[in-house]
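User: My collaborator sent over this chain with a note saying "see what the structure looks like." That's all I know about it. Can you take a look?
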Amino acid sequence: MKQLIQCILITSLITLSACTTNLVKSDNTTSNKPLLDSTKIETPELKDFDIGKDTLYDLLVAEVAAQRSQFTITLINYIQQARMTLDPGVIKRAINAAQLLKDMEAIREMALLWAEVEPESIPAHQLLAFQYSLQKNYVDAMLHIEAVLQLDGEARVDSLASSSAPLNDEDKNTLLRLYKDLYEVFPDNYEVGYSLALVQKNLNLFEPAIATLDPILEIHPDFEPAIILYANLLYDVGQLEAALEYADDKFDDFPKNYNLGRLYASMLIETKQLDKAEDVFQALADSYPQAHSFKLSHALVMLENQKIEAAKSEFLKLLTTGAHLNEANFYLGRIADTKEEEEDAVMYYKQVQQSIHYELALERASFLLGKLDRTEEMLNHLSQARKERQDIALKIWLLEFKLLNTFDKDDLSYISLNQALIAFPDDEQLLYARAMIKESKSDLVGMEEDLRHIINNNPKHAIAINALGYTLADQTDRTTEALQLIEQAMVISPDNPAILDSMGWVLFKLDKKPEALIFLLKAFQGYQDGEVAAHLGEVLWALDQKNKAIEIWVAILGKNPAHKVLLQTIQRLHPDLLDQLKNRAKTADASPAASTENEQDQTPITENE
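Assistant: Without extra context I'll predict from the sequence alone. Here is the result:
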């Protein structure tokens, strides 16, 4: 029976071809025998079920189905016959079909059947260990790893340990216990000990991991994975110098171990030993000329080491070979950018495609185009980027608005926001930005509409609530409504200096000057801004504490002599005072936080304050 099954697995297609040939073959000889002799017709005999014939038929169907890419039929028939025949060849074919269909349950069932039929089959236990590890069934996975070791097979003992870093602590501790148990069974297996140390490291048990590795490295000083792990552990426990010395010594012994080389180079970079790091990456690049990542690392270290031209040459070589194009173009763009070679910088930045550098390259290329007054080209570049990267289209709209704002393209920035809000009608950043533009255009109705859109969608948006409350207090007579809004914002964000400033300002508008002063002083303490200084100074002025107001104004003018709101406030309160304060701000070493206890000693800046 087994010979029949093995034969059919090899010759099923040949059998089918032979059958076809026999069907079409004709006999040229003439026969006088009648085609049908009625005298010899017999009633067919009914026979019992024949497992051999049924197996043969099912296997033929499975093979034909496979040839026709009907793999589900193939799998069903092979599983059925594997269960019936317990033949290892059929079981393996069933596993192959299950793997093709990625049917994990079928793979596991057939692998278990295989291990039952052939308990000393190393591949069967290897497959079960792998399948159980995928299911995070670490206990059963380790049972089959142990079985492979008992059979002197290749067990990939470290596979579970190597993938343990992202696991939760419960799973890591399960693996820790399992590896400890396995190490007790196989105390001379250094791969098991190494795997135990790896799990210990991933549980931040650095000292126990070092203790696990010490005897292993003493007996197996050339076991490179343990050497790398040991250097990492020395670093983890804060022994950077010892880790560097160890890695240096071992890299001399194993100069072609790129994992060790990378680790050693990263430590050198951390300790600012850039020349040595260059040497390490150069050695690795020489050892692995087809591994362009080492050339990239070498170029990056040279760039960090201010060897600009040498780094540029390496990046250009990468472009020539077509390797690491995004990184090479990005850093060539940065080099040109730093040297104020804007045209070259734009050219390189534009070549950066989807990568971690894409967004920064897009922003820098767009900024430089705006700086070169090539606004239309900048907008086209951003528009194309939105088509190609719809996943970050909103970010690109916000970038476009920021750049147009930076280059004082007010009309274009307003148009851009309107277009962006067609695509993202509920985005809070876009709505808030447009509200602020509308406020600058004295379109208070439109501003309020956008802010209330934000608030309706997000009643906890303290910034929008505060902005609406402040604007109503500052530019309308709806002060009671403004106070309610600002109080609402304060409940959400009680320590926000902007909201404290708004509260002080609305109280001042409601003629509650002493209360207003309390909030404005607190706001100014947290945020020494020109607008807060203008409000605080005006309240102090109204409370006849003019020298205090002047002290604050002078301090802020020293930092920001062109602050629009502050200049307008001083001009409105005392037109003749502005020039004197500007002159004083240029020479005085005033501090916004200066104590006002010595107010009595302050000399008035004019006689008519």
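A starting point for your reply to your collaborator: Residues 292 and 386 are 31 Å apart (CA to CA).
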